[in-house]
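Changelog excerpt

This revision adds worked examples to the README so contributors can see how folded entries look when concatenated. The first example is reproduced verbatim below.
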Amino acid sequence: MNANKPSREESIFLAKAAQAAERYKEMVDFMKTLVLSITPAAELTEEERNLVSSAYKNMIGPLRTGWCIVSAIEKKENDGEDEKRAAIVRAYKLDLESNMSHVCNDILGLLESNLLPSAAASDSRVFYLKMKGDYIRYLLKFAVGDDRKISADAAMEAYTAAQDIAVVDLAPSSPIRLGLILNFSVFCHEILNEPDKACDMAKQGIEEAIAEIKTLAEPPNKDTTLIIQLLRDNLSSWTTEVSLYVLSGKRRTLIICLSEPKVKILVDRDPIKTSFEKWAKSSHFSRTIVKGPDTTTWIWNLHADAHDFDSYTSDLEEIF
């Protein structure tokens, strides 16, 4: 191997080795070296493109989950009386935000300077525009003021540009097109606070994909099937009411009644799963589960040594 810079094939091999070893920072470095040596003069292969995506996704994923958990802790500390603890956790959250910004801005810079200019094929262009929208969306979690407005507009522009290409050039059951719909609808729901638009987008994507799949001789690939299910899960989550009751006269008991799709989402998917488990472990509740044919009811009893019932219920509402 060249002592100074690995070849294209060597970069791919090393990136896969780093991925297997869960050394994602090094995986990013190997793929970034490849991108800078190949693009924008030439386009990445599908395998190379997916390795770039996987490298950065595995870098940003734990940071996003950590930020959600630390933000919940910060909220609880801000409601308390220990200003020093609140300041410490606030500083830690800012450190996480700095790390998130570094990862997001790194890939966003690479997309602008190399990946998008090299993307001649429609699937590549949609893939990279979706990535651009995604990483701006991650930054929007903690952006404020004018920065938030500018970033939201930039994410919308990227997602919309990707959608304009996808509806013309990509099949309705294409995993790239469906992945775009999945993330664009999340952006509409979480960032723009437009649940109706998010639901309509997800529903239309599912219906168009299913209609095409019915005409195909071969079954859809596993990525298509998975993304359709994720769209269905989101649609169920967004259209399902969460019933949160505090029994009259029993201020130490909380009852949560959820439809089955909502329970599945809470239990099976990050970052909600991580946030919920963190809340449950740090709270002072014992839990009883009563399963019905269509619903699951969780009954939480506050331990005798715990106080401030309302703070626990407000934390839970934040997670839901």
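The second example, added in the same revision:
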Amino acid sequence: MKSSPPLSAIFLSVLLCTLIAGPTFGMISIGVLTQEKAKARYGITMHARKNGDAGIKVWLEFKKEGWLEGFTYAELRMEDGQGNHLVSARLQPKPVHHGQAKDVTTVAFSVEADHLGQCSFLVVCYGSNEGDVGYYLKVKDFLDLTTSLIDAHNTKPHPSSATQPKTVMVSLPDPISLAWNGSSSNGIIFIAVKDEGEFMMSGKPPHTMLTFCFVDSDKEKGLAPRIYIGGRSPTEAGVRMLSTHESKIILEALRSFLESHNKQDELASLQKNPDLPIGSELRSRSPYCVIHILNQHKHLK
């Protein structure tokens, strides 16, 4: 299993949202599709358009015929500048066009233009006429990244942001997405929480860290879930209470993720210790509850 460097802050449109440090596909056969082969052999086409503040929306269109009759799932996958794996996030089929034909399947994400070249679709079909097969479709092999469509979203960073972490915005249809960073000694789950249809995920360090934990904020009410950004304690960063609904979504997503990835030790720890420690202890004792997100409080309001 290939390990990737620790993720820093990205918005997996990014709490991103399923992240995996390096894919392990078992017996599945993985290949790469060119634009010509994708169209001629499988009828797959890739398209893009401007998507407001979310950057560029990119999507695949295809019909579930032939090999694709066994369509199982699609993922967004992102690499860093050196080709190391950064992010994996499951994409749910969802209509892109108004009045889209029922026999046409589309999967999409939105990302800042600067990061289009790092993105790929992974389309997997189990039990297909080719067996258990998956193909990568690299955005840079399908789209002209020098067109005005892309240039329109290449903005210069504000001088004050020179020392800030690089932000990648990616849109996904699901309300929450998680991933395992296998390069960490203990493993970390990165969570992307929905904000008006968008997500934030992390890029490379240095990064702004959002930590999910429980703190004893009120002796009468007892332990309460909180999120704080950066620093090692709530006093070093902005803090706000999580709603009961938010807390339930995050914890259920964590449990589901741990179960599906057979992380038995982490699952047992989460079940035995629902009241998570705070500050620096949280990173060592409950690494699976560290949340990396950028955009500060924007998506938490």
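Reviewer comment on example two: Residues 1-25, 152-244, 275-301 have pLDDT under 50 and may be disordered. The two ends are 38 Å apart (CA to CA).
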